[in-house]
Amino acid sequence: MAGKRLTAGVLVALAPLAAQLLVTPHAGAAAVTTLYYSSSDAADYVSQIDQAAANWNNAVSDVKLVKGSGGATIVVHETDDGQGSYTSTDGHGHGQVYIDKQQVAEGFDVTRIAAHELGHNLGLPDDYDGPCSELMSGHGPGTSCTNAVPDAGEAAQVTENFAGGFAPAAPRVAR
Ligand SMILES: [Zn+2]
């Protein structure tokens, strides 16, 4: 019964490969890339966004998501246009996340939505046919899926994506 608007999750063009070509990989111990996010424009979902960030922090060792409105490169908004939640991002820590209140009203788990959209900001593509155990399967498994934790494969991919640190990539907007 997924409505058409529920398919509006973003298609993210991946940029991390290009970004990695522009930087010298760190030698020795992996450096931690700190990414700041703001949830001040998503007042209804602050706690869920924080939990989503914490879930990523627990799963990935070389990227740390920290809340901070000043200088945040990942900004989360809430919308009410029924177009589904989505992200405009370069796939490397810069992005605008939109959480659709109508999608939430249909029963989709807010923490899962937030973690999924953060996943796009960390360079992961959609995998709607994937299982609930994946974040990037998004709305695919339906409203009964409330998993908001990345699986091992997703965590490993993000670790790889940020092996070269936080090099700004060319912005790409996709829906
Ligand atoms: Zn998505």
UniProtKB/TrEMBL annotation:
Residue ranges the record marks as coiled coil: none
Active-site residues, Swiss-Prot/TrEMBL: E117
Signal sequence, start to end: 1-29
Transmembrane segments: none
Entry superkingdom: Bacteria
SUPFAM superfamilies, alphabetized: Metalloproteases ('zincins'), catalytic domain
One GO biological process term: proteolysis
Enzyme class of the recorded protein, top EC level: hydrolase
GO molecular-function term, one example from the UniProt record: zinc ion binding
Matches recorded under InterPro entries: MetalloPept_cat_dom_sf, Peptidase_M7
Reactions catalysed, as given in the entry: Hydrolyzes proteins with a preference for Tyr or Phe in the P1' position. Has no action on amino-acid p-nitroanilides
Disulfides per UniProt: C132-C145
Residues binding Zn(2+): H116, H120, D126
UniProt KW Mitochondrion keyword: no
Pfam families per record: Peptidase_M7 (PF02031)
Cofactor(s) listed: Ca(2+); Zn(2+)
Keyword Amino-acid biosynthesis: no
Record-stated family: Belongs to the peptidase M7 family.
Protein name from the UniProt record: Extracellular small neutral protease
Native source organism of the sequence: Amycolatopsis acidicola
Lineage per the UniProt record: Bacteria, Bacillati, Actinomycetota, Actinomycetes, Pseudonocardiales
